[in-house]
Amino acid sequence: MMNQEHRELVQAGFDGELDAAGRARLETLLAESEEARVLMADLEAIDAFLDRAPPLEAPAGLHSRIVDGISLPQPSRFLSLFSLSDLPGVLRYGLAASAAVLLTVAVYRVGNEMDPSVDYDQMVGTIASGGPVAGGEVIDRFGFEAEGASAEIKLMERGGVYALEFELDSEAPLQFDVDFSGIGLEFDAFARQDEDLEAVSWSGETLSARARGQQKFVILMRRTGEGAEAGSRIGLEISREGSSIETGWLEPGW
Amino acid sequence: MGNDRDAALIEDCRKGDRQALASLVRRYERPVFNAAYRMLGTADEAADVTQTTFLKAFENLDRYNPQYKFFSWIYRIAVNESINQLHRRKRTEELGDNQGATEAGPDAAVAAEMLSEEIQEVLLDLSEDHRAVIVLRHFTECSYREIGEVLQIPEKTVKSRLFSARQVMREQLERRGFTP
I need a labelling partner for B20 at 20 to 30 A (CA). Which of A164, B123, B163, B177 fits? Predict the structure, then answer.
């Protein structure tokens, strides 16, 4: 006479849920019990019956119906290029929250390189001619925290495209001065995530940006190799209200 | 079912990547549609439930717990949506509109070509609880643990419910004179 344990053993064996010891117990049970063999045959019969139904193809057009009906956060070239996942919590969540509504990414060439015949506002998503830098390697990073302000700056590279990514959260405007002299990197493009960036200027081998609030912006660069000095660094200076509050550097590693 | 791959696609979806969305939908639309069809018995309703399932999944993506497999989560939504649809249908029938479950409808011809109606009849004769475990076990090949996750019941309950469902099915098949 089979008990509940026996019945569960047979069913679990049929469903492939037994380990080696369980399978051995089942073998013994099946050898000894006609009732167990009948139960196993019943389960196989039910399975055979259900197997008569072939898997159905989803109706034509269902895929589009589903996909078209779903809204996602507006895609950001830069959110995919540069992951937020490794940022400190507060900054990460602040940026993630703002990203959903602030993903109007505008791209500019600035300073002397600007071509007046080109509408750079229409260049969204077109800045990295060699393709996106998604998953780019972080070569070096610099971070700071001060009263009412925090920022992280990362130097990234993928496939010969270099990017300097700035993420900041600051109540008061911060001034970033970036010195590329002797690096062998040529300024290529500048991209921002929203409209709060107050000013950007490019002069010689120095870029200055002034920003406040929760911000993310990216400077894209090409490597020229010309004038590159071994051990050279990208110099950084962060100022607030005309006073330097932090200096640092990033090492490109050549 | 490629949990790591799912996790990566979900992460990309959260960043607004519609290609990732399309990949994720393509990965699960067919099994979800099949599960819904087996629960409901009509292709039109199953398609609607499949669409609603994905819509709800992505609307609530922030509530998805990556501790569980994505397909467990999405099947849970699909099964619940199917049961909700069955209840809506029942209410409609009670109001005297018999356009629902028993009416063959325009998809009957398609269904007749694609599967044995007899199988669907047997499934539809099961209670919702029994049908859900049979569908998840047989048509989506979920393990006991996964069925437990989908239906949010203990694994022990999965085993006993599955056993009961099969007993009911066996009796139905005997009445119908089915022999393997």
Answer: A164
